[in-house]
Amino acid sequence: MDSDNQASLVDEINLTRSLLDSTERQISTVDKAYQDLAVTLAVVKEKPKLSGKTVKISIGSGMYVDGEIGNSDKVIVPVGSDVFVESTAEDAGKRIEDNMENLRKTLDELIQRQADLRIRYDNLLAIAQNSSSEGK
Length: 136
What we know:
By secondary structure, the chain is α+β, with helices and mostly antiparallel strands.
């Protein structure tokens, strides 16, 4: 393999590795969002049982405050662009389940992309290894 082809192969290996790393980070981010929604869904479903109880409420950065869950069936939900609306716990649960389904689909797509990139990366490494052993 001539030096131009070798350089091109190295570039392609590096690009594929970079894409693989990026996909792995995306999978991690989407999976965390999915897990967070699962916890939120569990709380929303348990809201009637928690009514009147004091719970720890996250205020960010790992900090919490005590808060009492009211008797209302209403919750405040984000609808995008920092806009929030009041919703029933049941409707909020459905919205969360829909979001979880969308994240699950995204996660499946990312996992498939990761598998495809892994195959491509391994094939490129095999080509590089074969060309270096042929050059000896």
